[in-house]
Structures are given as C-alpha cells and as structure tokens.
Amino acid sequence: MASSSSPTVEVVKEAIEKDGFYYYLDPTIGKQVDEFAKEGYPFKTEKGLGFIKHNTLDDKSLEKIDTSGLLEIPHKYLHKDNIEHTEVEMKDGALVILDDRLGFTIVQGFAITFCFMVEEELNKWAKMKLPNSLSLKKIAISMTSEKIGMNFEFPK
C-alpha cells in the first residue's frame, strides 16, 4: 500500500498485515538520503545521529508499530511459486515500513535501513562504537526512551 503523506499507525498496521509492507513516496527523504550518501554516511557523527533520530525516533507515528523479531529469510525461499513478488519504483525516495519477515531486494540504488528489535535479541548484536565525545553522548541519551534503547558504546 502506498501513500504520499505520513502514515497513521492504523493504516501502517493494516497494510503490513495485508501485504507485509507499507511505503510512502517522499522526495524529501530521497534528498536527505542522497545528501547523507554524498557525505559518506557519517553515522558516527552528530549529524549522523541526528539523521537517525529525525528519520525514525522523532516520528511518533512509528512508535507503536511492532514486528515479530524474525531477522532474515534465506534468499532461496523467496523464489517459490506461492510467494508473491511486488516491484515498487521509488525513484525520488520513500519511507518503507515492513514486516521483518518480508524479503526484499534492491534492484537499483540503495537503502538506509534501521532495525528495531526486542532487548533479548539486541543483546546478541555488537554495539556500534562511537567516538567518545560529550556531544554524541547527549544525542544518544536523547534518543533513548522507556520503550526504545540504543546499541551504542563509547570506548575510551
């Protein structure tokens, strides 16, 4: 299901239950991602953490959308007759919210993905090492809530 405006929780959940995904075309997101790519994907900087925060955590409509926690579908299982394939062109950018059991392939271009998972699963993942700076620590703290934690560490 596609839209050209920010999703409501109900619309997103309905689309994910029906189709396995929801997307909305957004050239503004496309431009932000293009600029971020030109800068070399500076995730470990103030600007990078700001990018993550702005495009995920600050969007309160996404806060209530949950998933099953399954991490990956082996690619060989995606080429069966009973699996429906949907191709979507997102020429100028889009936001995609999908059931994490959904398999996808990027045919052209690139995607920046953010993963949300339960704490038990998160504990199995390596932490992203960030430069030990007070400004980055403040941003990381501002990204944390009672529902969402961050997987960063600041080695000395």
TrEMBL record:
Protein name listed in UniProt: Uncharacterized protein
The species this protein was found in: Trichoglossum hirsutum
